[in-house]
Amino acid sequence: MQKEVTNKIATTIAEKFRQIFQGEPLLIRSPGRVNLIGEHTDYNEGFVLPAAIDKAAYLAISLRDDEEIHLVAHDLNETFSVNINEMKPVGDINWPNFILGAAAQFLKKGIQLKGFNAVLMSDVPIGAGMSSSAAIECATTFALNELLHTGLDRLEMVKMAQKAEHEYAGVMCGIMDQFASMMGKKNNVIKLDCRSLEYEYIPFRLEGIKILLLNTNVKHSLASSEYNTRRTECGKAIEWIRKHEPEVSSLRDVTIDMLNKHVLIEDQLIDMRCRFIVQEIKRLTEGCEDLKLGNIHALGKKMFLTHRGLSEMYGVSCKELDFLVNFVHSKNEVIGARMMGGGFGGCTINLVMEEGVEQLITEIKPAYETATNLPLTYYISSIENGTEII
Ligand code: GLA
Fold first, then answer.
1. What is the pLDDT of residues 204-223, one digit of tens each?
2. What is the pTM of this model?
3. Which of 1, 82, 160, 321 is least crowded, fewest Cβ atoms below 10 Å from its Cβ?
């Protein structure tokens, strides 16, 4: 199924490329991601548990002989052109930033960049918390590394793609999304230590269980500003703690006792934010053990707890996400559910017994649409490989 979709999209963008630019492009696929548990822990040097999925960004690309960049977004029917020497973040449209931001990293490394032509297409829904931007950043970085024969390893490319997001999209994201897109492995989730960047693939046996993503279709307009605010709040707490415990460098090192002593007295809200992170890092570590033991129900319970924490303590949910999680909470066929990604909209991730998926959708779709006046869309995700040449 995944192969058919990939081939179909690859054929479409290759044809489009030939029509507009002539010549044969390199074709790259780079996926979006899900994250089972461990949210907002990456930039606090904790752990995350993501996986690359079947939805992906696709790039048809080739180098030019001059210094011009010509881009086409096939789905949006938009084009964008710029000279390499004039690259900067674009204000009014978003998508060129993910490509230009990635290209700019080559220049910053002192690598001689050339102009290029590219056609982009993606079936990762935008603003759904499935990392549509990381998918494009990774696709571009991977493609340019290939075309320029730069010989960068995947981890180096992950870091460059993350910087693209920081510098051209203005979101101070952690490393999870780009890591998952670039390093994903079919039927495995990645336990990533965001401090050391050591990682481990854990097989995710899906027999009888589906990963169902329910999209609130709330466009997360607060996402980037509030995301950056959360980072600042966590950083503030570290400053307070370090006055007394200088060896602490991130919330990864922090205990509840330290919060009681050094943060609670400074600011109750920031204390609550940090408490969530400390709990979430612990929850993820235990959740990985559940997964290794095949105890998916124990992991599912933790996912519900994560949602409650993200909503009530970390303050990154919204009423539509809460509605979806509350609705499925008492359903026997739902093993676990929570909001996924940065928050303020986007999707919930649900682990659902296969035989209950259809019935659940039949019930939840009209209930959500009546309650919110928004459409509910859904995706059943499979876990696929990371960035690759097609
Ligand atoms: C966004 C960011 C990630 C991560 C998640 C929250 O997806 O890009 O780095 O922080 O939010 O877990």
1. 977 899 999 999 999 866 66
2. 0.96
3. 1
